[in-house]
C-alpha cells in the first residue's frame, strides 16, 4: 500500500495543482470540494495525511479539523489565503500539524508533506514498539531495526545496527573492541582485526553531525567504545 493523501479545498484549480505535484512524487490522492464531502471520504477510506483549506462553504476547515481530531491522528496541513497570525494560531489550536498560506510554492508544500509523514511514521513506530531506546536526539527501534536522528531516518547495515544496539543497551558502559566483535560476529576476536573500528567509523558518519567530534559514540582510549 502506497501513501494516500486527502485534499479538501473548494478551489478546483488548487485541488488539481496539489494533486499533480503529489502524484508526481508517487503519492495517491483523493479530492473533496468541501469538508462535508471530505469527512464522508474519511469514513470510507484510510489516508496518511490531509491537506485542508480553511475558508470553505458548508463547513470551514477549523470545524472540520476539530471533527477529524475526535477520532483520527494522521497529520493535517491547513492552507488558507489568510496569513494573519491569529488564523495560524486558530488552525493549529484546532488540531492541525502545520499551516501554509496561499499563494504557496507547491514544492514547499511537498516538502512539508514529506516532513509530516516522516514524523508521523516515526512516532507511530515508536508508539507501537516496546523496544525503543532514545539517546538524546537518537532513536533506536529494535523491533523494526530502524534508527532516527531527529526526524530523519538513518539506514544502517545489519552489523552496524547490531553494534549500535549493543552500545545503546549498555549505555554508559565501556565495551572493549573484542567484546563488541564477539557479541556481534559470534566469533573469536583477533587482535589485528580492525573490523569494529571500521564499522564504528561508518556508524558515526551516518548518525553524528560531526563524525570527527562525536556526541553519541565515544572512544575511550585504550579501553573501547561507549554511548
Q: What does this protein structure show overall?
A:
The chain has two domains: 4-127, Response regulator (Rossmann fold, 3-Layer(aba) Sandwich); 132-226, Orthogonal Bundle (Arc Repressor Mutant, subunit A). By secondary structure, the chain is α/β, with parallel strands linked by helices. Helices cover 43% and strands 20% of the residues. The chain is elongated, with a radius of gyration of 23 Å. β10 (218-220) and β11 (224-226) form a beta hairpin. It starts with a strand and ends with a strand. The strands form three sheets. Strands 2-1-3-4-5 form a five-stranded parallel β-sheet, with helices on both faces. The relative contact order is 0.09. It is built from eight helices and eleven strands. α1 (12-24) crosses α5, α6 crosses α7 and α6 crosses α8 (195-207).
What global shape is seen?
Answer: elongated
Q: Which fold does the CATH topology of the largest domain refer to?
A: Rossmann fold
CA-CA gap between termini: 37 Å
- The counted number of beta strands is 11
Q: Would you identify the regions where 5 or more consecutive residues have pLDDT less than 50?
A: none
In CATH, the architecture of the largest domain is: 3-Layer(aba) Sandwich
Could you estimate the helical fraction of the residues in percent?
Answer: 40-55%
Percentage of residues in strands: 15-25%
How is the largest sheet built, in terms of strand order?
2-1-3-4-5
* Helix/strand/pairing category: alpha/beta
The mean pLDDT is 89
Query: What does the largest sheet look like?
Result: 5 strands, parallel
Number of domains: 2
Radius of gyration: 23 Å
Write out the CATH superfamily name of the largest domain: Response regulator
The string of secondary-structure elements, in order, is EHEHEHEHEHEEEEHHHEE
Amino acid at each position: 500500500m502506497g501513501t494516500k493523501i486527502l485534499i479538501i479545498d473548494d478551489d478546483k484549480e488548487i485541488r488539481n495543482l496539489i494533486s499533480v505535484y503529489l502524484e508526481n512524487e508517487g503519492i495517491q490522492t483523493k479530492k473533496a470540494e468541501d469538508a462535508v464531502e471530505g469527512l464522508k471520504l474519511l469514513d470510507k477510506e484510510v489516508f496518511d495525511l490531509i491537506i485542508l483549506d480553511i475558508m470553505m462553504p458548508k463547513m470551514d476547515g477549523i470545524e472540520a479539523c476539530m471533527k477529524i481530531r475526535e477520532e483520527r491522528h494522521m497529520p493535517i496541513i491547513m492552507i488558507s489565503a489568510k496569513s494573519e497570525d491569529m488564523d495560524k494560531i486558530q488552525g493549529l489550536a484546532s488540531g492541525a500539524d502545520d499551516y501554509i498560506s496561499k499563494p504557496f510554492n507547491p514544492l514547499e508544500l511537498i516538502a512539508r508533506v514529506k516532513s509530516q509523514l516522516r514524523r508521523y511514521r516515526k512516532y507511530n513506530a515508536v508508539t507501537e514498539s516496546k523496544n525503543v531506546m532514545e539517546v538524546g536526539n537518537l532513536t533506536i527501534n529494535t523491533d523494526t531495526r530502524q534508527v532516527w536522528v531527529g526526524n530523519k531516518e538513518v539506514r544502517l547495515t545489519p552489523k552496524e545496527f547490531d553494534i549500535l544496539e549493543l552500545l545503546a543497551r549498555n549505555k554508559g558502559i565501556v565495551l572493549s573492541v573484542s567484546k563488541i566483535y564477539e557479541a556481534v560476529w559470534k566469533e573469536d576476536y583477533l587482535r589485528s582485526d580492525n573490523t569494529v573500528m571500521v564499522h564504528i567509523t561508518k556508524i558515526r558518519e551516518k548518525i553524528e553531525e560531526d563524525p570527527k567530534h562525536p556526541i553519541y559514540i565515544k572512544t575511550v582510549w585504550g579501553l573501547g567504545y561507549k554511548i
